[in-house]
Amino acid sequence: MAGTELIDRARAGDGEAFRALTEPHRRELQVHCYRMLGSFQDAEDALQDTLLDAWRGLGGFDGRASIRTWLYRIATNRCLSALRTAARRPAKAWDIPGVEPPEPTRLGEVVWLEPYPDTLLEGAFAVPLGPEARYEQSEAISLAFVTALQLLPPRQVAVLVLRDVLGFPASDVAAMLDTTVDSVKSALKRARAGLRHREPGNPPAGAAIVADFVRAWEDADIAALVALLTDDVFMSMPPLPLEYEGRDVVAGFCARLFGAGRRFDLVPTRANGQPAFGAYLRAPSGARHGTGLYVLTLARDGIRAMTRFENSVLPAFGLPRSLPEVSRRRT
User: Fold this and answer.
1) β-strands 302-310, 288-299: how paired?
2) What CATH number does residue 7 fall under?
3) Biological process GO terms, please (predicted)?
4) Scanning 37, 160, 196, 229, which has its CA 20 to 30 A from the CA of 331?
5) pTM for this predicted structure
């Protein structure tokens, strides 16, 4: 068989054969690591470690499971090790000059959260899910779902993702985690009970809502922006821990930004299956510097959540750190 031949060649040190074995699974493994870790950079590091472990350990592959299952075992345990040993990105203090933030509704716990570029999702979901999967792929990559996973104990995260997202049988998950089927079932029950997240929207009028948001944000039109927000709209800004919930509270936050004279141009992209925008601050000189990335969660009646990330994430989305200067400031 071609697969057996590739394995034999890879065991003999053929790098091209190893890449042929692992490349079809690379994207889905990266998404798996991202779900578990919540950080795009941490997921890329875990993926590289997974491939290195697989290269070094291919001699121990006994063929009883598929290459894909074997790789998921390595990736899952790499992520669990990272969660046990790595210091997560710490919270940052407010650092926007000239703007005093309002009192937050609460302080967020998942300050290490990073967005995942939709361009890297292509091919990640090509393999059919197992029959016991409970989540749509688009839901299982949403910011709300990934954030909720970060609040569970690590082994519960692993079990829930492997069972409910990917649909692996309990026996396979038990083998991946070196535990028993009963332990997997128990962990899954606790994970399901502890998982709390908002369902991502998929409204028919989503394109119109997004277009109206761009106009309102670029024009600093608070009234138009407020009209787009749901009553329970939620705003977060990792790695800042400040979180705001409710239309009036979020509107007040945005009013402070615009009231300080900050004006933006938005460049569209997509993150976590959701509309997103690189935000570029206009300067009186005509310069436009990237200040961050906004990701929107939509509902049928408007914008349910806004998540703002730092400008350090822009390169992962193919966005520049600054836009070409304009001859005069837009009005």
Assistant:
1) antiparallel
2) 1.10.1740.10
3) DNA-templated transcription initiation
4) 229
5) 0.93
